[in-house]
Amino acid sequence: MITLDNIGYRVGKNWLARGVNLNINPGAFWALVGPNGAGKTTLLRLMSGELAPTEGEAQLGGKPVHAYPPKELARLRAYLQQKRDISFPFTSLEIALFGRAPHLNGAKETAADIETANDALRQVEAEPFAQRLYTTLSGGEASRVDIARVLAQTPELFLLDEPANHLDLRHQTLILSLCKKLAMQGKTIVAAIHDLNLAAMFADMLVVMKEGRVVDVGPPEYALTEASLTEVYDIPFEVLQHPNGYPWVMPRVSLTAAMPRPSCSGADCVGCWIGI
Amino acid sequence: MLQALLYQGDGYAALVYVRFPRVVLAAVVGALLAVSGTAMQGVFRNPLADPGLIGVTAGAGFGAALWIVLIGSGALEIWGTPAAAFVCGMAVVAAVWKAAETEGQSHIMTLLLAGIALNSVAGAGIGLMTFLADDEQLRSLTFWLLGGFGGATWTAALVALPAAAVGLFMLLRLAPQLNAFALGESDAYHLGVHVESLKRRAMVGAALSVGAAVSIAGGIGFVGLVVPHLLRLLGGADHRYVLPGSALGGASLLVLADLASRTVVLPAELPVGVVTSLFGGPFFLWLLIRYKRTLIAGTPYDNS
After folding, report:
1. Which residues are CB-neighbours of B16 under 8 A, at least 6 positions away?
2. Are the beta carbons of B176 and A104 separated by less than 8 Å?
3. Is there a contact between A76 and A146 (Cβ–Cβ < 8 Å)?
C-alpha cells in the first residue's frame, strides 16, 4: 500500500526523520512507537504528502505520493491530527460530513453521504452528540468526532496520529479494535501510539523509532524486548506476558531514594529519586 | 411612486437618477463587504477577522486622501478619487501578500502581522494627508473616510463594478474549501483542498471586492465583521450557507442603513458608516445576549 524508500526530512540542520525504509502491505495495522520527538508524526506527514521529503520518496499504490492531485489523494488516504482548534460553531455531524468532501461531485452532500457520516459517528459512539456544537464537546468526545470524520472519508490508508489520545479506557479499546477490524477488512492503518501495551495488543507490526530513525520493525513480541526498550526510552523496562499472550511492558522504577548521580546537580531531581 | 414612473416628471428623474443608483450601490457594497468578511474570517480561521485586515481599506483610504489633497478637483474628480482608492488598496494588499510569502507558501500569521504593519503605515499616510489638507479638502476627506452614498452615481460605479463582479464571483465559489479550512490548514490539505490556491483566491477575491466597495462608498465599517456572525448565530457555520447568506444580509443591512442615513436627521444626511455602527452595534449586542445561552449550552440553533 505504502512504501518509504530511504526517506528523510530536514528542518534547518535537524533531521526529523532519516534513512527510513518501510514497506506496508494492505490489510495490516502498523503502530509507530517511540519517545517524544522520535519522528513519528514527521513520518506520518511524509506518508500523507503534507511534507515533501528532503531525500528519498514515499509511494502510495506504486506512485509517488506527490504525483497525486490533492483531491484524488484525499479519496485514498485520511489523516487524524493530534492537535485541533476550530473556532466556528459547527455541529459534530457537520464535522463528520467534512470527511465526505473529497467524494462530493456537486456542492451538496447526498443522503448516502449523510448516512456514511452518521454511521461513522455511531461506530465511535458519538451519535448522542451528533447535533451538538463541536466547540462545546469534551476533549475525548471531540477526539471521537475527529475519528468519525476520518472514517467518513472512507480511505484505503488511515494515518492516525495518536488516535487513543484523550480517550477513556473503553473508547481507547473501542477505537483500536476498530483499527484492527478495518485492517482485517483490507484497509491499511498506520498509527502513532504512545501506549506500548495498547500497541502490542492491537497492532500487527510495530515500528520502534528514536531520534528520527527506525530502531526496530517487527511483530510486538519481537519488537518489545527489555534491551531495546531500555535503550530507546532511556529507562529500565520490565517485559511480562499478558494473559492473552501479548507482551506486557512497564517501566521499572523504585520510589526509594537512590544515590544522587555524580552528574546530577540538584538534590530535588525526580530522575534521581526514582533511580533512572 | 407609480405615478412618478408613469409621468416621467421630476419625481421620475429623482427616482431613477438619484434614488435608484443609491439603493443598488448600497446593496452591492453591503454584499461585497459582508462576503469578504466571511471569506477573511474563514481564511484567518478567526471570527474577529475583518476585511480591512489585509490592508485594502486603509490603502484605499490613503489613495483617496492622496487624490483629494494633492491632485484635488478637476475634470476627473468623480473618477479620480475612486480610481486612486482602488489602485492604492490593491497595491497595499499586494505588498502584504509579498511580505508574507516565502517560496510559494504563505503563512497565515505572517499575513496577519504584515497586514497590521501596512495598515498602520497607510493610516499614517492618511494622517499626513489630513495634516496637509486645507479646510475644504479636510471636509471632503473626512466625509469620504466616514463612508456614504451621497455621491453615488452610475458613472462613479462603473469604475468599480467589474472588479466587484469578479471578486464576488471568486469568493462565492470558495464555500466548500472554506469549510474544510475551518479544521486547519493541515486537515484541509488532507481533505483534498489545494491550500495555497485557496488562500490566494480568497485574498484576491477579497481585495477586489473590498477595493471596489471602498472606492464606491468610502470606508464603511462593521458590515464585514458582523454580518457573518449574525448568520452563524442564526443558522450555523456552514460556508455554503454563510457566504451567499452574507451577500443578502450585507446588502439588506446597508440598504436599510442608507435609508436611515438620509431620513433620520432630515434634511441633513448622516454618514452611512456612522449609521451602520450606531444601529448595528446595539443590534448585534442584542443578538449576542439573546443567543448566548444557546451557544453555551451547545444545542444547535434550529431545534432550540
Report:
1. none
2. yes
3. no
pLDDT tens-digit map of A31-86 = 999 999 999 999 999 999 999 999 999 999 999 999 999 999 999 999 999 887 88
Phi first, then psi, for residue A220 (nearest 5°) are -50, -45
B267 preceded by a cis bond (ω within 30 of 0): yes
Alpha helices in B67-107 (DSSP H): 77-100
High-pLDDT (> 70) share of chain A, %: 95
- A134-192: pLDDT as tens digits: 988 999 999 999 999 999 999 999 999 999 999 999 999 999 999 999 999 999 999 99
Contacts of B269 (CB under 8 A, 6+ apart): B148, B150, B261, B262
Which residues in B150-172 are b (16+ Cβ under 10 Å) and which e?
A: bbbeeebbebbbebbeebbebbb
What is the pTM assigned to this prediction? 0.88
List the single residue in A with minimal CA-CA distance to B177.
A101
What span, in angstroms and rounded, lies between the C-alpha atoms of B60 and A162? 48
Residue B149 C-alpha cell reads as 452614498
Q: Which three cell numbers stand for residue A16?
A: 526529523
Q: List strand residue ranges (DSSP E) for chain A, in order.
A: 2-11, 14-24, 29-33, 55-60, 63-64, 77-80, 157-161, 188-192, 205-210, 213-218, 237-241, 247-251
Q: What is the mean pLDDT of each run of 10 residues along chain B (304 residues)?
A: 59 74 90 96 87 89 89 69 89 92 81 91 93 88 81 73 93 94 93 93 94 87 87 89 96 92 84 82 79 56 40
Which of A91, A102, A136 is closest, CB to CB, to B192? A102
Residue A269 grid coordinates: 531531581
Nearest CB to A98 within list B179, B297, B303? B179
Percent of chain B with pLDDT strictly greater than 90:
42
Query: What is the rounded distance in angstroms from the CA atom of residue A237 to the CA atom of residue B289?
Result: 57
Cα gap A137→B9, rounded to integer Å? 64
- For A70, name the nearest residue in chain B, comparing CA atoms only: B192
CA distance B107 to A6: 29
Q: Taking a C-beta distance cutoff of 8 angstroms, is the pair A262, A273 a contact? A: no
Residues across chain B: 304
ipTM associated with this complex: 0.90
**Which of B191, B236, B237 is opposite residue A102, by nearest beta carbon?**
B191
